[in-house]
Amino acid sequence: MTKQEFIERLSKKAKLSKKDARSVVDSAIGMIVDRVKRKEKVTLTGFGTFEARRQKATQRMNPQTGRKMMVPEKYVPKFRAGKQFKEALGKRR
Fold this sequence. Notes:
Elements lengths: L2 H11 L4 H20 L4 E3 L3 E8 L2 E4 L6 E4 L2 E8 L1 H8 L3
Helix pairs in contact: 1-2
């Protein structure tokens, strides 16, 4: 499902205009990204947790030149599914 499809389904399910549904989705995503950028966890109980995890500096091989290079430490986004979300995926229809 694309973001656009998600917005269309949300607008029908919540009886919102597509413009309002888009605003809700964009605001929610923006808030999650903003908090994770600040290294804060965002927990949506039953759904999951978004967070930034530190990835240590590491040495890698440049595939084009074959030379070793240092990749600096960085933060990467992580999502851990919540218990209810995991259980919902495990159920048969």
